[in-house]
Automatic annotation (TrEMBL):
Keywords annotated in UniProt: Copper, Metal-binding, Monooxygenase, Oxidoreductase, Signal
Protein name: Related to monophenol monooxygenase (Tyrosinase)
Segments of this protein annotated with the region Disordered: 23-44
Domain of life: Eukaryota
Taxonomic lineage from the root: Eukaryota, Fungi, Dikarya, Ascomycota, Pezizomycotina
Entry-linked InterPro entries: Di-copper_centre_dom_sf, Tyrosinase/Hemocyanin, Tyrosinase_Cu-bd
Coiled-coil region list: none
Keyword Signal (UniProt): yes
Ranges for domain Tyrosinase copper-binding: 100-117, 250-261
PROSITE patterns according to UniProt: TYROSINASE_1, TYROSINASE_2
Molecular function via GO: metal ion binding; monooxygenase activity
Signal peptide residue numbers: 1-20
């Protein structure tokens, strides 16, 4: 399919965000404040674990919840979106031209992972946290160690490589699933496709992680994270997840971007004084980059929607979730342990 080849160029750019209203508090059962000694509503943080280290029961619960999202009818009236899973994808599709290659790249995707996790919990009764794909564990010997990776397990994983002319995934819990959105902005039924290029997985190895951890400001760090440790899985898995616009059509997208979020948080945690609220970047990707990635040009309405006083990404920048969860500001997603997000990474 031609979109497979068109997508590759799109990957190398993502970033920007800001808004003014206070973060709404989303109450779920885990935020039981009955034992709280302060006014904080985040008393028990959601634990986000590595897929490699979860029990089979935990993996099954996550897979079941994701299948539930895939099978739950849409409610928000988005063009082409038939399921709750599609609605999340739609939200990414229609903002793809401003959430990549801009300052909001990391905070927007952080909040998007939260929105996904929150939907699993509130719609599908999932009680765990959003798992992450600790990709460095699968990049030994400078290539994807496919056979060893529990991620691609056909029972307690996401299935393997695609097969046949269209590279449709035909094994695992998501075998033969249908995407209703994509490629790019199209509304069409396509299969979940993957076409592994194992050598790209080395872009997620420890050398590249160390390189990003050594950066000392948000701009340099975010540019580094979005380059190698972010591109690795998009390029290495290929197919649906390589489509920079419609990539959330592969359930693996959420585990990949949660890993990236974890790496950003690790970087922030090295010096919270300096980094907890360190934000910078532009709000709009260059036109040449949008064109290269088959993305729509940015509208005035989109720029107004940023609620950012200048061209530069500030903590006020509006993170837009199209009503899936309320919009919020970049500032309110900088601290993963705050009352809004209330999660932690478990190793
Ligand atoms: C995706 O995989 C196909 C088949 O291996 C390959 O031809 C194509 O170049 C890959 N795309 C990228 C961006 O590497
Ligand atoms: C938490 O505190 C709020 C505000 O005081 C209260 O309305 C709510 O019932 C409390 N929730 C629990 C589970 O105690
Ligand atoms: C809780 O909120 C009240 C009222 O806003 C405030 O006076 C008090 O200092 C707060 N307590 C803590 C521990 O933050
Ligand atoms: C979630 O739990 C509620 C209450 O027990 C139940 O009514 C609902 O059917 C459950 N939803 C799913 C998707 O299992
Ligand atoms: C690397 O590859 C070699 C040769 O295939 C193998 O013996 C070794 O176990 C691999 N190492 C890791 C860490 O996977
Ligand atoms: C997926 O589709 C292939 C090809 O049509 C078919 O052989 C296979 O049985 C299907 N698998 C599932 C789980 O539906
Ligand atoms: C990571 O990959 C690069 C390029 O393939 C290689 O030069 C480097 O040695 C690798 N690092 C590790 C820790 O494997
Ligand atoms: C954290 O960053 C601040 C500001 O750059 C710096 O003064 C401080 O030394 C750093 N702390 C550590 C532990 O590196
Ligand atoms: C989110 O922000 C956009 C842009 O400002 C706005 O159009 C939209 O109404 C907001 N959505 C919600 C649910 O507040
Ligand atoms: C925003 O920045 C871009 C790139 O630096 C520049 O071309 C554009 O004119 C700026 N727009 C505004 C409104 O300042
Ligand atoms: Cu994205």
């Amino acid at each position: 399919m031609s979109f497979l080849t068109r997508t590759l160029v799109a990957l190398l750019a993502f970033t920007t965000l800001v808004s003014a209203s206070p973060a709404p508090s989303l109450s779920v059962s885990k935020r039981d404040n009955s034992t709280s000694t302060s006014n904080s509503t985040c008393t028990t943080k959601t634990q986000r674990k590595a897929w490699h280290k979860m029990t089979n029961d935990e993996k099954q619960a996550y897979i079941d919840a994701e299948l539930c999202l895939i099978n739950t009818p849409a409610t928000l009236g988005f063009a082409g979106a038939q399921t709750k899973f599609d609605e999340l994808q739609y939200c990414h599709v229609w903002q793809s031209n401003v959430i990549h290659y801009s300052g909001q790249f990391l905070p927007w995707h952080r909040y998007f992972m939260y929105a996904h996790e929150y939907q699993l919990q509130t719609i599908c009764n999932y009680t765990g946290g959003q798992p992450y794909w600790e990709e460095v564990l699968d990049t030994k010997n400078n290539s994807l160690q496919m056979a060893d990776s529990p991620i691609f397990d056909t029972v307690y994983g996401f299935g393997g490589n695609g097969q046949g002319d269209d590279w449709c995934v035909q094994d695992g819990p998501f075998a033969n699933m249908t995407n209703h959105l994509g490629p790019y902005y199209e509304i069409s039924d396509t299969c979940l496709s993957r076409q592994f290029v194992p050598s790209y997985f080395s872009l997620g190895n420890q050398t590249y992680i160390d390189e990003c951890m050594a950066m000392d400001n948000y701009w340099d760090a975010h540019w580094c994270w979005k380059s190698n440790p972010h591109s690795n899985a998009h390029l290495g898995v290929n197919g649906t997840i390589l489509d920079t616009v419609a990539s959330p059509g592969d359930p693996l997208f959420y585990l990949h971007h949660t890993n990236l979020d974890r790496l950003w948080w690790e970087w922030q945690a090295v010096n919270l004084t300096a980094r907890l609220y360190d934000m910078s970047g532009g709000n709009t990707p260059p036109v040449w980059w949008l064109d290269k990635n088959y993305m729509k040009h940015i509208t005035e309405a989109q720029i107004e929607g940023f609620n950012d006083p200048t061209n530069h990404t500030s903590l006020q920048h509006n993170l837009i979730m199209e009503g899936i969860v309320p919009n919020t500001t970049i500032e309110s997603v900088m601290d993963i342990g705050n009352d809004l997000l209330c999660y932690e990474y478990v190793y």
